[in-house]
Design brief:
The structure is a homodimer. By secondary structure, chain A is mainly α. The first copy, chain A, has 10 helices and no strands. Chain A has 2 domains: 51 residues, Orthogonal Bundle (Arc Repressor Mutant, subunit A); 146 residues, Tetracycline Repressor, domain 2.
């Protein structure tokens, strides 16, 4: 148990350092040596936890989505109305990512071009995880009679598709625009789509 | 008059050649010499019409959107119901772009990285043009009483935002997925959003 906690702590410290160095130097220029120095451990210790720089960067991105999904789950299991939950979740998936990579400036495109096909595969998985949380709330609303019956999976997917253009993936946060503008766009989409799923 | 027609014809021939060479070689490797040879005119003649390779590539992208907007305008001015027009237009903005750059494979990302900030500025303009055509149909539907009154501009913008993730911009058509999948996603979004704007 103690060992597991330590493992998680060291992994997290390495990923925290990754976040800093990716933002400062970008993926290409970040080295395992820099990472080890930033965490204050030996280079060999890094390799006990991750087998490559690529795996570290991908784990860092996955961790952002793990944290996002925790927050989505929290909203989904709260006692708010299904309508309100979907609105908050739509906003959260956009603003949480925005805040997570806001300090990256140009280097997010560099990360994308370096790890393109793997990042795309992870991204598809992330979107599926999010869609399944959305679907659970849509089903809840359908059970309560506030959402129209049927096609819960397709509808959940549509909320994901409709806000994907607001995520910092192909575009950096700077290119996407100001945070409140992005949020405004997400809310406008959520509003129309929510009327669309309502009974 | 005759001179204008000729100018337009030569411009179009140059942009047709641009389309071929961009797909075959990508932006970096495409030269004005190649273009002149492909069209069968002298290099100097190219410079009578465009001042740089950059301007040629941007004009090529603008031409795709000119053609798309012609088709959107045609749908908007047809005698179909506003609901059906919006559905067709949503589909068209996705599939027309897909078809226009489908033969590009990887080189679309290369074009994007070469001309990033200018392409982004053009893209914003393209989306505004499309939004204004969508808005004209939404207003028509509001006048007819089939769409709910108010916020026509915001609603038009929401249709654009909600399908932007399905356009080949950050992702190539190969990365986006199969054409019928993209179309299915666009229709699912359009369906919910249309219920959202309906009276």
């Amino acid at each position: 148990m103690r060992a597991t906690v330590q493992t998680k702590e060291i992994r997290d410290a390495i990923l925290d350092a990754t976040d800093k160095l990716l933002a400062r130097f970008g993926y290409q220029k970040m080295t395992i040596d820099d990472l080890a120095a930033e965490v204050g451990i030996g280079k060999g210790s890094i390799y006990l936890h991750f087998k490559s720089k690529e795996e570290i960067a991908l784990s860092h991105v996955d961790r952002i989505i793990d944290r996002l999904c925790d927050r989505l789950e929290m909203i989904a299991s709260s006692d708010k109305s299904p309508d309100k939950k979907i609105r908050l979740m739509t906003l959260e998936r956009v603003s949480f990512r925005f805040d997570s990579v806001q300090h990256y400036s140009e280097s997010i495109n560099e990360l994308l071009s370096s790890l393109r096909s793997k990042l795309l595969a992870h991204r598809r998985e992330h979107h599926e995880r999010e869609a399944s949380i959305f679907e659970s709330v849509i089903k809840e609303g359908q059970k309560q009679g506030v959402f129209e019956k049927g096609r819960s999976s397709e509808k959940a997917q549509a909320f994901i598709t409709a806000t994907n253009a607001l995520l910092p993936f192909g575009l950096s946060t700077q290119e996407l625009g100001a945070r409140h503008e992005i949020e405004g766009k997400a809310l406008a989409v959520a509003k129309l789509m929510l009327r669309g799923v309502s009974a």
